[in-house]
Amino acid sequence: MTDHNPRQLFKIWLLLAMVVISGMALMAIAGPTPLVVAVLLGLAIIKCRFVALDFMGLREAPSALRLSLLTWPAALVLIAAAKLVLGTALFG
Hints:
Blueprint: H1 6-30, H2 34-55, H3 63-91
């Protein structure tokens, strides 16, 4: 954990919970369309950022470590997005 006080961490946790619930609601309302999946992948990057910087305590870590921990989920999201685009292009 970080040196944030419990109130700050709770606010961040609430924000993460709202992101998850909004993603679930979006998927339930609109279904698994490519646009919805792209939005959910973007939300995943935002969640990774909050978890890495605030809950793992890396906000004050060296920039190379912060960058690498945020590059990894971004690379996975790009791979997932490429699969989505290829699947949509190939199978309509």
